[in-house]
Each structure stands twice: as structure tokens, then as C-alpha cells.
Design a protein that fits this description.
It is a single chain. This protein is α+β, with helices and mostly antiparallel strands. The protein has three domains: about 10-75, no CATH class; about 85-155, no CATH class; about 185-350, Orthogonal Bundle (hpI Integrase, Chain A), CATH 1.10.443. Helix content is about 45%, strand content about 10%. It has helices spanning about 40-60, 85-95, 100-115, 120, 125-135, 140-155, 185-200, 205-215, 215-220, 260-270, 290-300, 315-325, 330-335, 340-345, and strands at about 10-15, 15-20, 30-40, 75, 230, 235, 240, 245, 255-260. The termini are far apart.
Length: about 350
């Protein structure tokens, strides 16, 4: 059916039945639907259009009956009767065309949680929030609630619901995570690198590469030899390994160039070229970062006197040390694939420059 002109009544198909959607200005900006209780057929569409014309004429001549008794129409429910889990499933199908594998996996997880919620919980947004906090970590509950809010916002824009019931639900505060900047010192970095050289030499070059480029671990794991230009001495970060699967893209969806200094050249020249990816697991497969963190990275920290943080802190360390050396924020941002605003917000306060003697 063609979209109605602004200020006129549109005839819609909703679950195979015809309904009228009245112009918002007639009802102080609120959405208003009316069910005709007629199946969507060509003949019934003519009836629906006739009903719409009658109502439009009455409105023009200021005789519109806002009680609707005159038109003998049944007002549709303020919100169509669709469960939150069904609504999220529709959102899932909508997003699968554009989202990456890992992001879709997160949405599927949220949908499974909605299916596990009791019916009385699903009908109360505040109870949904409480259920998420009770059955997840605080950070995961925060992410899940954000996805549910986004789903309902999408559903509202698509006229599937009359309002977003989660719009006024209190946000869940996150707590510090492994991705929050908490850099290693130079001494700690060197101890970690030496420990890998002694106890886990297979990943020695990989760990050094993370520390000396500040790349995201997924980008380091996904780096291919074809994206290293030894002639111009540049690395092209254009892909990643996410959950063991190759992804032809980076987190920011932008490729970036990184200069190869002598330190990096030594790492790359000493890395065996037995696969198309530069770094690989001990079984010569794509590096699964979860396995690497659990089996190799965590094991190293049992033998050294350094407070444990995750591999992502190699990136934090590189950025912080660059700022300590006085490298402009714009240049650091370009190297690591962040915006200067993000660098300033999260890292500028972590530099360790000593106070000058005035």
C-alpha cells in the first residue's frame, strides 16, 4: 500500500488485518490506530479507504467524532499485543543484514535471555532490569539492557509499538573492565616480554608486537603477510580475528597505516612464515584470543611479580608511553585507530611525566 500523505489517514496491514492510522496532529502528537477487523483483501481495502475518506471529510468540516461511535470502529490497543521476546526476534532479523558475526552472537544471547524470563517479568520493564542484574554480571546486564532499549526504540520508529516502555528505565552503571586504561610500566612490560621468551616462546613475537604497535589484539591476530609492505616499511591494519574466525574488517571499519621501526622490523624478520597470517597458535591455527588469554597469558603472571591485567593493556601501555614521550595526540590516534577526543578523554590523565622544577 502506498504511503499516505502527511495529515491524512493511512490504511495499513497489521498481521494480515486492515487498520487505520490517524494523523498524529489530531491527537496531540500521539500515535493512534484503529482496527477495522477486516482481512487485507482488495475489496476490503476499498472499504477501508472509504472509511478513511469519511473521517477525513468530517475532520475538515469540524464534525469529526473523537469518540468514534459515529464510525463504529474499534480502537486498537495502545500497544499491539506482541511479547518483548517476539519483538526482539524481529529486531534480530532486521539487524542480521548489517551486523558482524560477533555482534549477532551478542543479540542472540539477549534474545535467549528474554525467552528464559517469566511472563510477568517480560511485561514490566523494571522487572526486566532486575532480572538482568540478578542473572548476569553488572557490565553484561548493562549491555543487555541497552540492546533491549535499542530494540524498543526501533520498534517504536517502525510503528510496531506505541511507545518505548524502557525509555525511562534507570540505566545500569558499568564497572571497570579489562578495556579500561590501566597501562603497564616500561619495567612491567619488559618483565612480561622476558617471561614469554622464557616460558612461552611461541607467543614471544606476538606479545612484543602488541606492546610495540598498540594494535587491538584481534588486529594483531588477524594480520596477514600480504598487508606488510617491507619496501615502504608500513603495516596495513585492515582485518582481525574475532573468536577464532577471520574478519575482513577492523573494529572501526577503517584501514590504517602503521610505520615499521627497527624494533618491529626485528620482530617481523624473526617470525616464521609458515602461514598467511603472521601470528598463529601453537597448532598453526588462527589465534583464539580467549584461549591465548586463559592458557598462555594468565599462566605467565603466575611466575612474575606484576599485577595481572589482560592483553588489551598492551594497547593501553603503548598509547600511554607515546604520550609520555611527547608524541602529539593526533599522531597517536592515527597510529592506533582512535579519535584524538577518545585519546584525550581516556589516556591524557594517565601519563607519568614528572613535575618540572620551576
Amino acid at each position: 500500500m502506498a504511503r499516505a500523505k502527511k495529515g491524512t489517514i493511512s490504511v495499513e496491514n497489521f498481521r494480515g488485518m486492515l487498520r487505520l492510522r490517524l494523523p498524529r496532529p489530531w491527537f496531540n502528537g500521539k500515535k493512534k490506530w484503529f482496527s477495522l477487523n477486516l482481512p487485507d483483501t482488495p475489496d476490503n481495502q476499498k472499504i477501508a479507504r472509504a472509511k478513511a475518506n469519511l473521517m477525513e471529510n468530517d475532520f475538515i468540516y469540524e464534525r469529526f467524532d473523537f469518540t468514534l461511535e459515529k464510525y463504529k470502529l474499534t480502537t486498537a490497543e495502545p500497544e499491539p499485543e506482541i511479547s518483548l521476546s517476539d519483538l526482539f526476534f524481529n529486531y534480530l532479523k532486521f539487524k542480521e543484514k548489517t551486523l558482524a558475526r560477533s555482534s549477532m552472537k551478542n543479540l542472540i544471547s539477549v534474545h535467549n535471555k528474554l525467552l528464559a524470563m517469566p511472563e510477568n517479568v517480560l511485561k514490566n520493564p523494571n522487572l526486566v532490569r532486575s532480572w538482568l542484574l540478578e542473572h548476569n554480571t553488572q557490565n553484561q546486564a548493562k549491555k543487555d539492557l541497552c540492546q533491549i532499549k535499542a530494540c524498543c526504540s526501533w520498534a517504536f520508529d517502525e510503528d510496531l509499538i506505541n511507545n518505548n516502555p524502557f525509555e525511562k528505565v534507570k540505566k545500569i552503571k558499568g564497572i571497570s573492565t579489562d578495556e579500561d586504561p590501566d597501562p603497564f610500566t616500561i619495567q612491567e612490560r619488559n618483565i612480561i616480554i622476558q617471561a614469554f621468551n622464557e616460558f612461552c616462546p611461541h607467543y614471544y613475537n606476538f606479545v612484543r608486537f602488541l606492546f610495540f604497535t598498540g594494535c587491538r589484539p584481534s588486529e594483531g591476530a588477524g594480520l596477514k603477510w600480504e598487508n606488510i609492505d617491507f619496501l615502504s616499511k608500513q603495516i596495513i591494519f585492515v582485518e582481525a580475528i574475532v573468536e577464532g574466525h577471520h574478519k575482513d574488517d577492523t573494529k572501526t571499519h577503517k584501514k590504517r597505516l602503521f610505520p615499521i621501526n627497527q624494533q618491529l622490523m626485528e620482530i617481523l624478520e624473526n617470525q616464521p612464515k609458515i602461514k598467511n597470517t603472521v601470528f598463529f597458535s601453537e597448532k598453526e591455527q588462527n589465534i583464539n584470543l580467549n584461549n591465548f588469554t586463559r592458557r598462555s597469558w594468565s599462566r605467565i603472571f603466575k611466575d612474575i611479580q606484576v599485577r595481572k591485567r589482560g592483553p588489551y593493556h598492551c594497547r593501553h601501555t603503548f598509547i600511554t608511553l607515546c604520550l609520555d614521550q611527547g608524541i602529539p595526540i593526533q599522531q597517536v590516534a592515527k597510529w592506533v585507530g582512535n579519535s584524538p577526543q577518545m585519546i584525550l578523554k581516556h589516556y591524557a590523565g594517565l601519563t607519568r611525566s614528572s613535575v618540572p622544577e620551576l
